[in-house]
Structure formats: C-alpha cells, structure tokens
Design brief:
The structure is a homohexamer of 279-residue chains. With 279 residues, chain A is of the alpha/beta class. The first copy, chain A, contains eight helices and 13 strands. In chain A, the strands form two sheets. The first copy, chain A, has a seven-stranded mixed sheet with strand order 8-9-10-7-11-12-13, with helices on one face. In chain A, helix 4 runs parallel beside helix 5 and helix 6 runs parallel beside helix 8. Chains in contact: A-B, A-E, B-C, B-D, B-E, C-D, D-E, D-F, E-F. Chains C and D meet through strand 8 and strand 9 of C and strand 8 and strand 9 of D. Strand 13 of chain D pairs antiparallel with strand 13 of chain F.
Chain lengths: 279, 279, 279, 279, 279, 279
C-alpha cells in the first residue's frame, strides 16, 4: 500500500463512526505502521471523548469534511449499515483505501457500486471479516488448500444467540438503517468464512425462511421490522451446499457459533482456538 | 380392532420378512393380546430357524400363500422397501390389518395406493414409527398440544451416522429395491416425528441436496446407487420450516439423532429418555 | 392495584433498607408503571449515595417518617430480618402495599401478624420469591397444572454454598437480627418454589437437623449463633414428602441450587434457564 | 477360622440358593483357601446345571440335608430374604460359619435371633456387604480413622435406579418373602457403608416416607406390595444425621449410587474406584 | 510384492502363533489379495480349532516344517517375543516376506540380525505398527509433511492402563520370553507413532526409570520380573525431545493412550478417530 | 518469632518491590499480627501510590536505606529475581526475617549464600511457596504422612500456559535479571510441591530440554533469551522419579497446572480445591 506523503512513513487513517469503531481504533493503536489522524461521528460529544481516549488529533461531525481536510490514506467505515455505501464511495473518490464493517451494504446493488468505486479509484477495499484471521481458521484454510482434507461438499455454519437482539428500537432493528437482521449481522461472518474455505464457489440458488418471533414481543419491539431468526440452504455451481443459520434470539441453552465442513475422506469443525478433524 | 375368529380371542398375526421382522416378533411375543401364527421369508432356512426360536407354528416361503392359508388378522410387512406396496396391498385385499416398516414405499404413488387399499378394505394401516411412542416424545407432544410451549415455527431434525451404511452391496444400497438411501431409511423417522409434533402441517415446497461420497468408494461400492448424505429444508402452509438431515456415513465423532423444535416463548429438544425445555 | 393519587398515574414506591434494596431500586427503575419516590436507611451516607445514583428525590433515616410524609402507594421492605414485621405492619397501617424480602420474619408468629395487618388494611402483601418467575419454573408450573407430569409425591430441593457465609459477624449471623441461618436465608427460596409447584399442600410434620461447623471456627465466628447447614424432611397431608437442604458453607466442589420433583410417570428437574423432563 | 478336618486343609463351603449364589461360587472358586463341597437349591434342575458348571461334587434339594451330610465348615445363605433366618440359624446349629446375603432378614427380631445363634455356636457371622471392600471405601475408611478428615456430622447416601424393579411378580416384590422393597434391597448397602465409615453410631430416631408409584402400575404389578422409593433421615446419639434414599424405579436420567460424608474441615465423596476429597 | 507362483494369483500367507495371530487371520480373510494357506502353533488343539474357524487347509506344530512344506509367500510372526527373531530369520531364509508383531525382538542386537536377514533375502520386513494406519494419524502425518503445522520440537506420548497386566505368570511377565514389560509391549506403539510423525530423527541419548510396584504384589506375582511402569525422555539429533510413558497397572481412573506433538505455531493431539489442532 | 520492640506488639514488616509485592501487602493487611511499616521501590511514583492505597507510613527508593531506618522485624523480597540474593542477604544482616518470592535466586550458589546469611543471623527464611498451603495439598500431605497412600515412586507435575509470556521485553524475559524462564517462574511452584509431598528426597541426577519457540518470534522478542518450554525428569536417592514440565506459551486448549503422585496401592491427583484418590 502506498501512502500519501505522511512524514512519519505510516499509513494515515481515519475512522467514521465510533461505536464498533472503537475496536478499529484499538487495532490501529497497536499497529506499528498506522497513524490515527482523525475520526468522525455525528455525535460530537462521543467523538470528543473517544478522540481524547485514543489521542486522535482531529475530530469531525461531518465525514465529508474529514475526507477533504484530513489528508488520509485510509478510513474505517463503522457507521450504521445504510451509510456504508455513501461513506465508502466518497472515500474512494477522495483517494482513500477502505476497511468496511460488515455487512457490506443494505443491498447487493449498493455493494456492487462500492466495488466499482474501489476499482475506479485503484484503491484497496477490505471487508472486516476478522474470523478469516483466527488461528484455527487459517490452519484449516491451509489444510483444505493443500488437498489433505478432500473437497467440501456440505458445510453447516451458523451463529445463534440466546438473548442478543442488539439495541432494540435502535438502528440495528430498523430495516431502513440496517438492511436486515441477524442474517446480515451475524450470518455474514460465518457464511463468509465458509465461502472463503470453499474457495468462493459461485452460488446458483438459495432457499430459506426468516422469522421475527421474539423482537416484536419485547418492550420497544413495536417498530422492530427485521427478522430474528434466519435459516437457509445455498447451492453452488460446483455441486456443494451450505446451510446457514443466524439468530439474535432463540431459546437455546447458550450461544453457539461455528462451522462444520464435510469432506470425504475427512471432515473438520472450527470453533474458537481449537480445530477438530475427524478422519 | 376386531379379530377374525381366533379361538384364543387374540389377534392372529403373521410377519413377512424376518430381518427387521425379528423385532416385530419380539414385540408380539410380549403382548398379551397377540398370537404369532405364521411367518414368511424367501430364505427358507432363515424362516425355519426363526420360527423355531419364536415357536411359530407355520412358515411360508411365499407370502401370498400365507395370506391365503394362515387365517390372519394382521401382518407386519418387514421386507425390502420395494415389496412394501405389493405385500401390504395383498394383505389388505386378504382382509388383514397391516403394520408396515418404514419407509412406506419406494415412491409416493405406491404409498397412495397402499392407503387406498387400506381404506377400501376398511383395515388399519399403521407405519412402524416407534419414535412417536418414546416417553420423551409423548410428553413433548402433550406439552405442545396443551399450548404451553407455543407454536413451532422452526424445527431441526436429523439422524447422522459415522460409519453406518447398511449391508453395502445388498438391497439397502440398491435403489431398485430400497427406493433411496438414508433420507428414507433414517430421515423418515425424525421427519415423521417433527411432523407429528407440529400437527402434520401441509408442505408447500422443499429444497435440498443429496451426496454419495462414501458409499461408492468403499469395497463393494461399485453398484452403490443411492445417496449417503441428504440435507433439505421444507416449508409448510402454516409458515413453519423444517430442516432434515440424514446420513449413513459422515466423518463425525459419533452418531447423533435428535430433534429441536423452536417456539416462542419456549423451545424443546428431545433425544432419548430426556427432554430439555429452554425457557 | 389502586394508587393514591399520583399525578403521574404511576405507583409511588419507597424502599426501606438499601443493601439488597438496590436490586429493588433497579427493578422499579425499569418498570414503566413505577415511580421511586423515597428511600429510608439508618446509614444516612449510604442512603444519600444510593438516592443520588437512582435519582430518588427524598431520603429518610427513619422509615416511620417516610411512611408519614412521602405519600407512598407501596414499599419494599429490605431491612435485616428482625425488622420485617415492624416495618411491614407500619406500612400496612399507613395504607401501603408491601413487597417484603425473604424470609417473611424471624418467627411464624410475627409472620401471621404481618398477614393479619395486610388483611386489615386491605393491601397487597407479596414476598420477594423471584424464583417463581424464572422462565423454567413458570413452564414447569404450567406443565404440572396441566396434569401432564402427574402428581408430585417426592421433591428434593436445596441450595448449598461452598464458602458463602454472608457478612460473618454482621446481622446475618446474629440470630437476634436474622432469626436463623441458611435455612431461612436460602432454603426458603427453594422450599417456596417446591410448595408453589406442588400447589401448597398442608404440612403435617417435619424432622431435621442443623449444624454450625464452619461459622464458629472462622475469624470473627465467636458470636456466630445460627446454623450453617440444615437438612430436613417435611410430610404433607396429601402424602407427599419434601427434602430441603440449605448451607452457607460446605466442602463441596461448587455451589449447587435446584429442584427435582418426582412424579409418576414423569419427573422434572429445574435449574436456571433449562428444564429437564425424564420420561 | 478353624476348619473341621478337611484333608485339603481348605475351608469346606456350601452354598444355599444358586441365584445370587452364583457370585459366591465364582468368588470361592478363585480363593486359594476355599473348597466348594456342596450346593442346595429347591430348583433341582438349576442346581444340577450350576453344580456342573462349577464342578461341585454334591447337590441337595433340601438345605437341612446338606447341613447334615456334607461336612461343611461354612455356608453362603443366598435364598429369598424370608429364608435367611431359618437357614442361617440351622447352619450355626450345625456348626457352620455363615456368610449371609443382604438384608440380614425380614425383621429386626429375626436378625437378632441370627446373631444370638451365631454367638451361641461360637461361629463367624458375616453379612455380604461387599462395598466395604472396594478400594475407594477402604481408603476413605482409613482417612476417617486417621482423623485427617474430621468427624462426620452429615452423610447423604443413596442408590436410585431408573427402571430396575427386580423380577416383578417374583419374591422380590412380594413382601412375605422379601420383607420389603428397595430400602432393604439396595438401601442397606449404602446405609451399611455410611454407618461403617461413621464408626457405627447408635441411632436415636428416624423419619421417612415410602412410595409405590411405579410397581403397581406395571404389567404383573397387581400383587406388588412393597415400596419402590424410600427416603428417610436418621439421627444418631453422637449428633450426626444420615439421609438415605433407595429406589427401584424413578424417572431419573440414569442410575446413581454413592455416598457423601460431610465433615469439617474436609468432605469426601465415594463412588466407584474414585474418591474425591474437597478441602 | 512378487508371489511365488500361486495359481490363484494371491499372496500365500501363513501365521505362526494363533494368540494375537487371530487378528492377522481376520485381516487376511478380508483382504482380496491374500490366501491363508497354513498356520503353526505349538498348541495343536488350539491350532486345529483356529484352522477350522478360518478354513485354513494346513496346520503345523513346527513352524520350520511349515516354512519348508507350505510354499508360502509371506508369514505373520505372532509368537512370544523371544521367538520373533528365530522365526522371522528362518522365514527370510525360506524366501518369505514377514509381518512381525511388536516388539521387534527382545534385544536391539536380535532386531539388527532380523533386518540383515531381510536385506540378504531381498524380502519385505514390516512391523505390525497398526496405529500408523488410523485415520487420524494418517491425516496428521500429511499435515506435518505438508509443513502447515511446523516442526515438532517436543512430543508427549504414552499408553497407561489401570489394571492391565497381561496374563500374570505367563510369558508376558517373564523377561526371558518377553524381553520386557509395558515399555516394549505398549510403549513401542506410541513411540513408533511419534518417531514416524517426526520423520524418524536419530536419537542421541535417553534417560528414564522403570518400576514394578503392582505385578510382584498380585496373586501369581512371585515370578514377575519385568517393569509395570516406565517413563523416559529421549533427545534427538535435530534437537527434539520425546516423553514416553507406558504402564500395565496404575491407579488412574481409566486407561489413556495418545500423542501430543508440540510445534510452533500449531500443535496437535491425536487420540482415536479425532484429531485436535490448537492454533 | 520475636519482634524488635514494636509498641503494638505486632511484627513490623516492610516490602521491597511493589509489583507482586501488592499481594504481600494484601496478606499483611488481613493478618492481625502484622503491621506494615514501610515499602521500597525504585519507581517512586508507583511506591507512592501503593503506599497511599495500603496506608503505609514510610516509602523508600532505596531498600538499604529502608533496612537502616525503618526498624523492621521482617521484609518481603518482591524484586526481580536477580535482586533476591542481595536484598535478602542485606535484610538478614540488618536483623530481619525474610519472606522471599520464588525463585530463590538466579543461581544455586546465590541461593546457598542466602541460606548461610539467614543461619548466621539466626533469622527465619521462608520461600513464598503458597501452594503448600492450599486445602487440597494440605490434606494430601497428611494422607501421605499417615502412610495410607503408600510411597510415591513417580510424580508428574507441571504448569503449562497457552499464551502467557509475562511482560515480553521486560525483566522476566531477560536472563540477566530473571535467571531463567518458566521453569524457575512456574515450575518451581509445582516442583516444590512434589518434593514437599515426597518428604524432600535427595536428587541424584536430572535430564531435560528447554525450548524458546514462541518468545523470540513475538513482537518485542528480539531480546528474549530464556526458554518458553522446559521438560525434565529428576531421579532421587530413594528410587523415585519426578517429571516436571513448565511453559509460558504452548498451543494447548487452555492452561493446566497440577500434580499426580503415583503410589501403590493408591494414587492421588491434586488440582485446585478438589483432591482425587484412585484406589
């Protein structure tokens, strides 16, 4: 990655949105090649406190102003989902690389425009799919790529919470801002991981159901307009099938998240630091 | 159930096929109202030994002869799947009640003919879905019917074996005789249970995949022509969805079988003698 | 519940004692129909800090003054056990509904007087038995009431801590103030739950033992004059029996709390969010 | 133990009753100092087959004849419970040592007469309480006797089966022959163990309940006249208390048997080969 | 492998010793390219019964006669350890390939002579180290060879039984016939596996202890002259270290066998069908 | 222990080094016979804050000044390992008793000098081996000393962390200050415990390996010059052997620490509050 002209030789980064954006600031702070230059948030008070905590020299209420004035090499897009596309596209047009929180956008069309904008600008566009970088999934990826485990023909993946609707009444549960519920909030993580391990096969059809059983019945749930459970199967051109389940609220004993990939002759299950291979 | 005219006042039963039929014989033997009168099997030696073991007075190589001569009230159909329809239909026409091993037949069409034959004869037709009679599933059924658990909107059910292809090279793995692989061998048990608990909702669509990864590669697998793993989703008129998985061979650590039914506000998991309800 | 005449239309509540009383304040704060009007505690500094934290407009060192001046609809009694009776009776006489922390009082006689005072005043008297409102116990209660599980003939219930004597040297371990040890501190919770599930059968006899093995040997234990382990059986008019165990200190690997209710043909165990039914 | 004059120098043993008596024969066979001389059983066919299997030279249908003719040093009493007293007393009078299966007899009075007969004859009388000889319980006994664990003030012991009524309709479930149900069949084992470990304290009172919920409802249960669940507390002169539970049939997930002895400062749990001490 | 001239085109095999040799016969029976031609055992009765069970046409009391007369391509050496060397060497000299049970011999010197004899004869010499062929260890070997897991610098391997001294008083516990105790009986399996996975590094030194604590104290233990527990460390030229433990008798809760191989950045544990990789 | 002349009659203690020294301060604060008089730390700011938190009247940057001026009865040595010897020796010479953090010193020679200095001064020298004082290990020690468990012939002890290199780049990972890695940081705890339980047998030889696989590859690891994994066997004059493993970084699923002592006829495992004895 080339940087714009920082005296420090470091990548000059900015963060838009300081909710989940805090985790990006923590990561940049630890990285020897990153320099946090600016942050933007419509909540100025929150912006100010966060800037103080992380020693960020400039704060902006308006991300467009930040893109114009802060001389950035790259930004993190950490806004509500409906702003991912406009912020990222503006950043590409301002000559920035972009790390964008998941999901990419609230529609496939928006997502495609973001990719086009990145290509037109010749800039890097990275989705924040951190599960690809866990120790166990990296080892599993190598095992699969080395051909020891055999081809994946069926994968089961899911992330199911017991009581975990995020901020009921807030942007997460308002479709106009979020674009959807747990499927694009949690499901994208595990689905991305499955696709990554399978070598990104091309999907040919999908089938599934969504339910909103808990959210609308909870206090503040009258405006809840996304699903709280989704389950679906996806078939791929190479013959493989993936089951994906995602839930913010289910009467399960405890939260579960994981990935089973079925191969012949071997099969693997990744969950946290430990990888099991059954042969 | 009325009986034909047995002096003993007991139901006079016959068994066709003494493979899985042994379990039917064991059951009849313990039942105070049943009298085992005859058995039929194309393998006469096996028929003779089984008859000796269970003190069965008459044996037949030909089930039609048995139906004609043995003066039976009821029979158990325990043949390879492709014979379920002809044997059961002949039995109804001979005035017998029928308990038939699962799956009902090798095609839906055959199954419908069997039901018609039962109706025409005014005889009882019962499928051998024993899991409905387990303690835990009976309690669960009552809880659901009493309305305490809420409506089932999503159910996950499956039966997955590690290394359990039955009789490779035999009738189980030959589609012309079996009609299919683990989906109709194991999957019917758990799918029937789910439908039973849900009150038999009407299916409106289904989607799924089958794979034959293990069977064809095993010794004797060259004629293996059924699946060894199946996974599918079924949607119902009442809005509910069911996931069903069935496998004879998967690289899992150990065999699993069970049923999760999702309701709001409560949810239940049945497996063996113990029923868990998460509230 | 009718309220006295609050402008807000909410129930005007006060809390006496801000130790365990904090949890009552947290609960009232979340409830849309409650308005916290006042709190009373003999420790004025603690009262002041708590009032600030929960935005309570009035504080009193003397609960009688609070009852006279604060125009309350209801109070929570969260004092040491020996004050439950005088505070609750004063509150009823002042025209308040009362939620009282467990145990009801330090003697059965006091408890009866409290109930009489509530009746005389025509006010609601509720004991703070929160375990009745857990998801698993509410489901279990419905299952029992629906008759699916059968009658309870034997119940085993207990709450056993490893190292959990509360405030050694304080009021909990001083009989004059507490009225007793773990049996009325922890045991009442699980015993109440058992009785509630059984439909409050009438006890006819009881038998048991108490021990003080740990408390007196610990630093500050010279004035310890309650039990630290209690175990007993109670027989009821309907023929049922309940085992109850309660301990603040036992050399067990970890704390356990739960309830097993034995019925024929089924049996249930409730512990936390998960309910097991063995059939 | 002195022996009567066997040429082999071994103890000449006989066994009365070859049901559980088989286990005694197996034990004698392995012991270098025992010589199996005779067995007696009212079922002559069973006696003959057992004698053949264990190379026993003499068989008798009548135990009194055996005592007179077989020149025995010792016998095992393995009959239904109601015969323990007459057989053992006859054996003592014939000059034999006696190992008697549990329970000692069908009443305390009979038991006392057996002890008197043993004393009068100067012979050894041993109850078959094999759990005292398990590795874990022997170690625990030594730990207790050495004083490391402290005095036992509360012990919980029990043996609970899921579906384990022995021979419904047979002598076990007929009070006239058995003297009682699981309390004296299973409970005596664990109660004996507790008393043994506690140093045989003197009981001063007891309280408990018994239930027959499963047995009478099972096939063949119309003559079932013993309990199937018993639970009780016993208080001892030294201040200690013991809880004992015994069941042949309970809706528990699986059979449990064990012993917890509570001491201060330490506490132990014995179950099978492994002993846990919590300090 | 070339075969001598069998008409069937199959490998003509013989088995010497029908104790553990039974398992070899079972394996040969299932293999399409093997023909069991003869077996030899000094116990003629046992030889005869085994030959009948496996349809083996020729039996010999003397293995040398078998080697001369049976026209074999290969033999399994399944004798007591002290005969491994003479039988295998005679077989090589008779032009046979050899599969030999572990351990190779009762001394390193004998083992070297066996290898020399195999080389001189140009025949295959295979040790029966079946654990190399388990699914999990084969996958692990591939992962290691592919370089994904990193180099093994420390491996811990062992096989520890609770109560498992084989045939006390027999050849296993007699050093002149066995050459040693659990270290060469069980330890060779897990040590071989570790060396195999590590790529057979060259050992440079070793250090360890052996104990005979249980064997000599058991009935029949007076002639017990091998160890019952061994523990040692081995250092290799490549800097790696291996810990090996082997026991026939230890007071552990249950038998354990397994292998941990430590690498950086990843580490694997193989035990049975499941392989865990911690990253 | 005699005290110098404190008016309070309490032991006047000082602490040198307020890193791990905090835990010593917490312990002294709770002890009725200790009076914390002074603390010393080269980091004056940290010393000041700690003194304020624990109400320590005097602080010193120089421990020698403290020993001269603070009129102490005893000190805790909580410095980096390389200062254990000089601080402790100075303290003995100043007439103080000493509790020293583990390991004793960075070389055996230094350790011997410390012991000599203690003897010359007639003062108590105690190493901070707190695991000797856990409930489970004290009970185990008594069981061993009472002779119930038999002699220990083999002990396995270890402390293995998953990701636990302390302060990479700090004194722990710099050999000149620490004297070594996890073997003397963690291993000394478990090795001391084993030796204590075994009655301090005299070692006659040792053999082992150390590895630095993780530390040097981590950020800041360029100056890492101690091991991160150590494994060794030690043989003792009484014939016993001890295995000790210690690691700051291994790809294990989770941290483990414990002790197995092998005896005949019994065997014990201590880990945390629970002690298991297998018989």
């Amino acid at each position: 990655m080339t940087t714009k002209g920082s005296n420090s030789g470091k990548v000059r980064v900015g963060v838009v949105g300081v909710g989940i954006g805090r985790l990006h600031l923590e990561g940049y702070q630890k990285h020897p090649d990153a320099e946090i230059v600016a942050l933007a948030d419509v909540n100025e008070e929150r912006a100010r406190q966060t800037a103080k905590e992380f020693n960020v020299p400039q704060i902006f209420a308006d991300y467009e102003k930040m893109l114009k004035e802060a001389d950035l090499d790259a930004i993190s897009v950490c806004t509500p989902n409906s702003l991912h596309a406009p912020v990222a596209i503006a950043a590409f047009q301002a000559g920035c690389h972009v790390i964008c929180e998941k999901p990419i956008a609230t529609s496939a069309k928006e997502g495609e425009k973001m990719v086009e904008a990145a290509r037109a600008a010749g800039k890097i566009f990275m989705m924040a799919f951190n599960n690809r970088f866990r120790g166990d999934t990296q080892v599993l990826k190598k095992f699969i790529d080395d051909g020891v485990l055999g081809d994946i023909y069926y994968a089961k993946t899911g992330w199911l919470r017991r009581r975990g609707i995020p901020g009921i009444g807030g942007w997460f549960t308002t479709k106009a801002m979020s674009g959807g519920g747990p499927l694009i909030d949690l499901g994208v993580h595990v689905l991305d991981l499955a696709l990554h391990l399978m070598g990104n096969p091309k999907p040919v059809s999908a089938y599934g159901s969504t339910y909103a059983e808990f959210g609308p019945k909870m206090p503040g749930g009258d405006k809840y307009d996304v699903e709280d459970l989704a389950s679906g199967l996806i078939k791929f051109q190479n013959g493989a099938t993936v089951l994906v389940e995602a839930s913010w609220a289910s009467n399960i004993a405890q939260e579960t998240a994981g990935l089973d990939v079925h191969q012949c002759p071997n099969q693997a299950r990744a969950s946290g630091a430990q990888l099991s291979v059954v042969a």
